């Protein structure tokens, strides 16, 4: 069993993107500001007119943790979880799948990949660039 994300009106575009192999970031159609996580209104100008851009999928490790306990359904421990600063200027949290905990570093370059869990869920994961 895998822990599943909440999918709603504000995030459906993101999950549709991961299923298509795209990392989508919400944008305000009025002022152009990018934001993650997505939400109903622009935090800069308050407008409800939102769209998205497709990110390059490249980023830099801002911070990370190594999750050793408690167990996570569907995952083998330890799990490396990073805060990734995308080149587009927003920050995302995600699992790093190909870097051993002892090799993780702040500033490491990562690239997004996609883990197809089943027909309804594809998760973005991060790999060494």
Report on the structure:
The structure is a single chain. The chain has 129 residues and is mainly beta. It has two domains: 8-54, no CATH class; 56-129, OB fold (Dihydrolipoamide Acetyltransferase, E2P). Helices cover 6% and strands 42% of the residues. The chain is built from one helix and eight strands, in the order H-E-E-E-E-E-E-E-E. It has one helix spanning 12-19, and strands spanning 24-28, 34-35, 50-54, 58-67, 79-86, 91-96, 109-118, 121-128. The strands form two sheets. It has a five-stranded antiparallel β-sheet with strand order 6-5-4-7-8, covered by helices on one side. Strand 1 and strand 2 (34-35) form a beta hairpin. The longest helix has 8 residues, at 12-19.
List the SSEs and their pairings:
Blueprint: H1 12-19, E1 24-28, E2 34-35, E3 50-54, E4 58-67, E5 79-86, E6 91-96, E7 109-118, E8 121-128
Antiparallel strand pairs: 1-2, 1-3, 4-5, 4-7, 5-6, 7-8
Concise synopsis of the structure shown:
This protein is mostly beta strands and 129 residues long. 6% of the residues lie in helices and 42% in strands.
């Amino acid at each position: 069993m895998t822990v599943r994300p909440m999918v709603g009106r504000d995030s459906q575009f993101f999950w549709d993107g991961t299923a298509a192999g795209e990392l989508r970031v919400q944008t305000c159609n009025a002022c152009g500001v990018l934001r993650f996580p997505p939400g109903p209104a622009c935090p800069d100008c308050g407008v409800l007119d939102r769209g998205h851009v497709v990110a390059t999928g490249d980023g830099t490790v801002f911070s990370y943790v190594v999750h050793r306990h408690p167990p996570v359904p569907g995952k083998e421990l330890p799990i490396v979880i990073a805060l990734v600063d995308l080149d587009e200027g927003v920050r995302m949290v995600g699992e790093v799948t190909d870097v051993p905990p002892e090799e993780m570093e702040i500033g490491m370059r990562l690239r997004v990949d996609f883990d197809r869990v089943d027909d309804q869920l594809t998760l973005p994961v991060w790999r060494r660039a």
